[in-house]
Amino acid sequence: MENITLVLIIVFMALAVGLLMIFYLKSQKTENIENAFKVIAAQVLEEKNSSLTKENIERVNVVLEPFKEQIKELNHQISDLKKEQAVAKESFKNEVSKVIEQTSKISIDAENLTTALKGDSKKQGSWGEMVLEKTLEESGLRLGKDYQLQQSFRNTKGELLIPDAVIYLPGERNIIIDSKVSLKSYKAYIDSDNETKKDEALKNHITSLKDHIKNLNSKGYNHIEKLNPPDYILIFVPLESALSLALTSDWDLQRLAMQNQIAFVTPTNLIAILRMAESLWKLDAQNENASNIAKRAGHLIDKFSGLNDDLENIGKYLNLAGKAFDAADNKLSSGKGNLFDQIKELEALGAKSKKLISKK
């Protein structure tokens, strides 16, 4: 009896333990399932949010893409504009530097050569021609096309004229330059320490320049065959100081020159004049291109107008052809008393033919 009771107790305990184990395992399984669902739900939500975020970003990118392209193009334009401005500034800087360099170089050479001269008028003339030639070479103008040196001409009296330089301008205009200025008196002025002698040398220097004006005016440069009258005749004085001294001492010298359509130039302002001449040639070339474009546009408009007239005529003829076709069709098959209807009536009356006629 005691043994049976013990066995029953053991069985009940085993059952209790088993039930407890089953309950524990069930609760663990449920918790695992819940955790799994939570993980899956979190993943789904995360993927959904990621998908929505990605989709929104794509939509925003689609909207912003044209603006991005416009901003990119604008940046390119700004960059190109900055480059063009930089090039223009550099070009202007180079041009200014070039003019300064040329002026400085010519002035230094002129002063050095003047110091070396001993008062020989022939040497002075050759030196003036040399400085003039060097100035022209540095100007950017083309020898043989934009200017000529020592070219022979005849005036209307048949007299031989050989100007030191002729600058050609657009519109068959020109400027004549003479460089045969005597600086003998000016040299005597700067070499003398005696005031009386300096005054006399200065008067002789001014008189020499006035005589040069009268001499040029008498040569008849305004009446050269095969050359239009020059806009101006320029007297090239290779030394700035020589011209400045004369003009400040006697302003009547300038008045006399202007009355005879003559002007004094030095290496400095001659460079500026030659630069203007170069700009005029460039502008003339641009105007010629613009004129050619305008002519070409006129031809294009004329051709278009002719083509338009031809198309209108074609339309008229097609309209007439259409009307003629409708009239023929009306007589043949569609109009009252047309041929097909009359043939049918003949057939109905007994007319026979080898071919069957019918409307198409």
Give the beta-strand count: 7
> What gyration radius follows from the Cα positions, in whole Å?
53 Å
Order of helices and strands: HHEEEEEHHEHHEHH
What's the quaternary structure here? Answer: single chain
Major β-sheet strand ordering: 1-4-5-6-7
For the sheet with most strands, the description reads: 5 strands, mixed
What is the helix content?
over 70%
- Contiguous helical run count: 8
Show unreliable segments: 1-42
Span from first to last CA? 123 Å
Could you explain how this protein is built, in words?
With 360 residues, the chain is of the alpha/beta class. The protein has a domain at 120-353. It has eight helices and seven strands. The protein has a five-stranded mixed beta sheet with strand order 1-4-5-6-7, sandwiched between helices. Strand 4 and strand 5 (173-178) form a beta hairpin. Helix 3 (184-191) packs antiparallel against helix 4 (195-218) and helix 4 (195-218) packs across helix 5 (240-249). Mean pLDDT is 69; it is low at 1-42.
